[in-house]
Amino acid sequence: MKTFHFPLQGSPNCENFILLKYSGFITDSSPLFGLDCEVCLTSMGKELTRISLVAEGGYCLMDELVKPDFKILDYLTSFSGITKEILNPVTTKLKDVQKLLRELLPPDAVLVGHCLDLDLRVLKIIHPYVIDTSLLYIGKQGRRFKLTFLAKVILGKDIQCPNKLGHDGIEDARTALELVQYFLKYGPKKIAEFNLEALAANQEQGNKEGATHMRSVLECLDSMGQKLLFLTQDIDELSSYRNCQTVKCSSNKEVLEQARVEVPLFPFNIVQFSFRPFPPLFAEEMKNNMKTRWTEMSTIYAGPFSKDCNVGSLKKVFSSLGPVQSITLVLETYRHLWIPPWPRTDENKRGRGRRHPAVRV
After folding, report:
1. Which of 64, 249, 323, 345 is most buried when burial is the number of CB atoms within 10 A of its CB?
2. To which H or E segment does residue 224 belong?
């Protein structure tokens, strides 16, 4: 659960989270509950504005609007459907929802949702028994498919239709629940027959052909179901993106401390230390240094290989391990990275053994 950013006892930023009651084990008969949350952007980051909880069979147990504790900066209406007028008369608070969840859910409850870690974080609750449909149907290289895509392909139904304002939390919770039930009924072999990767690629190709603008990095991450971590001292428009987890810090020092803990857990991160502009010369120098450092970090040396090695076959091998931008054949020996495959001798310890080709990936 730690790998996929689920809140855990003792984890950073989870000090004030509520632990739901749970038993020591679950069984095949443990009940499933679909969960979906909508959020808004406040002065303290994302806060809960609506929670939907659905039991097996699609029965809605809870569909509550929630008033955030801090000043609302953006209602994120296009995602949530929540407006100022809708939220104004609401008196329910996060603590009320937490209390109700503890009363409604049995100890062996299994929570089901799509990108469920985000929902648990805005609810500020910890629960050990979860099924995340974005992970249950995960693609190659950790790709996560959108809930709308899975609903259409697996269940044959359309959700989050363009003519609707925002998402329907009950509909999303039910859909996640149905996806889990389908997986449990038919198993992974049946899911493999759908060839989700190919279907998603075809859909994206169709979107590209009809597109009139270049997609931003955030849109690309969203289309892949990947999440962005944003560490900052001030709330920014980036925080309005659904798959952006924002951590607001009080100082540059805190930003750095949080970055050391959180950055390794996310595929893409933005760390913002200050809004103060840098002098032009310093900014240009910093940009060039970052480019150089990024190139170094993204370059891997492998080898040595036999003199008759084929670059094409090597690229095929390395591509099976992950995305490869380019492969270059080099003859130099990179002593600090080279681990000889044969027994170490005084000659090759010094990096002056026979010269074999290596590749730069």
Report:
1. 249
2. none
Residue 235's nearest CA partner among 38, 5, 27, 43 is 43
CA distance 4 to 132: 10
Residue 327, Cβ density class (10 Å: 0-12 exposed, 13-18 middle, ≥19 buried): middle
CA distances to 3, 228, 268, 297 from 265, in Å:
7, 10, 9, 17
Contact between 131 and 151 (Cβ < 8 Å) = no
Omega before residue 304 within 30° of 0, cis: yes
Residue bearing tokens 């100082």: 251
**Structural domains of the chain in order of their starting residue, each with its CATH number:** 18-212 (3.30.420.10), 221-297 (no CATH), 301-360 (no CATH)
Distance CA 147, CA 270 (A): 25
Instruction: Output the tens digit of pLDDT for each of the chain's 361 residues.
Output: 888 889 999 888 888 999 998 887 899 999 999 999 999 999 888 999 999 999 999 999 999 999 999 999 989 888 888 999 999 999 999 999 999 999 999 999 999 999 999 999 999 999 999 999 999 999 887 889 999 999 999 999 999 876 666 678 999 999 999 999 999 999 999 999 898 988 988 877 766 555 545 556 777 776 666 778 888 877 665 556 667 788 888 888 888 888 888 888 777 888 888 766 667 777 788 888 888 888 888 787 777 777 777 778 888 788 777 777 788 877 776 655 444 444 444 444 444 444 455 556 5
The pTM assigned to this predicted structure is 0.64
